[in-house]
Design a protein that fits this description.
Blueprint: H1 2-19, E1 24-29, H2 35-48, E2 53-58, E3 63-68, H3 71-84, E4 95-106, H4 122-131, E5 136-148, E6 155-160, H5 163-166, E7 173-179, E8 182-183, E9 189-202, E10 209-222, E11 227-228, E12 241-250
Antiparallel strand pairs: 1-3, 2-3, 4-5, 4-12, 6-7, 7-9, 8-9, 9-10, 11-12
Helix pairs in contact: 2-3
Length: 251
């Protein structure tokens, strides 16, 4: 009886040793994952495999070490990571056509400067006349600017205000800047963190730059929408103002 009991105990002990596995380490080199995508994928696998694997990530060399409690755990973690380690698919960048209408606003019933307002802007004219004290509006210029979606350094477009916009022969240089525009998920709305329209105001009749007037802001505009920006006051027109109005089209 004692011999049988001893044999059973030894058998159980040997069985327990056989079921115990040492931690399994495996080096994995990532081919495509990098930056934020790599961090998010690795953290996701860590959450799923919590208490079963450790993942040591070296972003500079894009290599990682998986330490699993068992071989199965290590293989499972690596398999999950491989599913994310694929080329990132990007949709082709779209071309965006911004149109900037420069609208002159005047206290008199008849526009002092500028041509007639286009029919498609009738609704904007009514809203502006209801919101501001100006009695007449005139179209000073129409500026089309094409931008590639996501263009990091931004797009700049420079020009000279027509003499009819200022009433004097001194040149007023303007600049349009549109930074990193992005098309939102609806495919129709465009956002940019940096939109600017500025005018160099000359000093007297010398033509030298005496200052700058304009607007700098973030901008979100949807196709078909007409966004009226803040007014720009030029020093030689104390009772008049220029309102840039922006529309966009996704091509």
């Amino acid at each position: 009886m004692k011999r049988l009991l001893l044999t059973l105990m030894l058998s159980l002990a040997v069985s327990g040793v056989a079921q115990t596995e040492k931690p399994v380490e495996r080096m994995v080199e990532l081919k495509y994952l990098q930056g934020d995508r790599a961090n998010r994928a690795i953290n996701f696998v860590r959450e799923i495999m919590i208490d079963r694997v450790r993942i040591i990530w070296e972003p500079t060399f894009r290599q990682l070490m998986i330490v699993g409690r068992t071989l199965d755990h290590t293989v499972q973690a690596e398999t999950l990571l491989r599913k994310f380690d694929v080329p990132e698919t990007r949709s082709p960048s779209k071309t965006l056509e911004f149109t900037i209408y420069l609208i002159g606003a005047y206290p008199d019933a008849t526009p002092v400067r500028g041509g007639p307002m286009p029919v498609e802007l009738d609704s904007v004219v009514k809203e502006m006349q209801a919101a501001f004290a100006y009695k007449s509006l005139g179209l000073l210029d129409t500026i089309p600017v094409r931008v590639t979606e996501g263009q990091g350094r931004g797009t700049e477009y420079s020009g000279i205000l027509p003499f009819g916009a200022t009433g004097i022969n001194t040149k007023h240089f303007y600049k349009v800047h549109i930074d990193s525009p992005q098309v939102q998920e609806d495919g129709k709305t465009v956002s940019t963190p940096g939109f600017a329209f500025t005018v160099e105001v000359p000093y007297g009749s010398t033509g030298l730059k005496g200052g700058e007037s304009g607007i700098r802001t973030d901008l979100t505009v949807r196709e078909g929408q007409k966004v009226v920006m803040s007014k720009i006051q030029l020093d030689d027109q104390p009772n008049c103002a220029i309102f840039p109005m922006v529309t966009v089209k996704v091509l």
